[in-house]
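hey so u asked for the seq, here:
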Amino acid sequence: MSDLHKTGLSRRAVIAGAALLAVLARDACARDALFDDEGYRCARYRAVIDRLPDPAARMAMATALALGADGLFLDVLPAEGAVRDADGHWSLAEPHETIPGALWFPETGRAPVDPALWRALAEHVAAWRRDHPHGPIVVFCRADCWMSWNAARRLARAGMAGIFWLPEGIDGWHDAGRALVGVTPQPS
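ran it, structure tokens below
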């Protein structure tokens, strides 16, 4: 049984909730605010992060480095200049490198979040959680990037357990001497 079902939340409820939040957030962000009414960063995503993404927890880089394949790593960095077709597949303007084994769900850290993109990420996370009921789910992008903070918080607030935010992201992984690998976006 998935964490969504354990908490009484269906996938449809999570998706509907995200869609509603997107509409509400769009209004708040239109007023030139840095944060929407739900507390998600909606502008100037590359900035120092001064708070934790409660109820998600922060994961130390040393812990992430030690995980190996024991967790689900989710890269939410935007795909700058990319185009998504009607079938949800991406055409990239430039290649992207990430943490080995990570899945790339571009743009899912924005506020408001695109409902189709969020649905693809949420469904993948729920499926992974069914097979790995206690495994950590690690959300990241780059250092000082609010998109990973937003996505980690959104997953945890939707009732998904074991969500961790890796604030140093790709930059910290590389700075620790670890290799990065090419990746293509997950279809939405």
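Residues 3-183 form a domain with the Oxidized Rhodanese; domain 1 fold (CATH 3.40.250.10). The two ends are 24 Å apart (CA to CA).
lmk if thats what u needed
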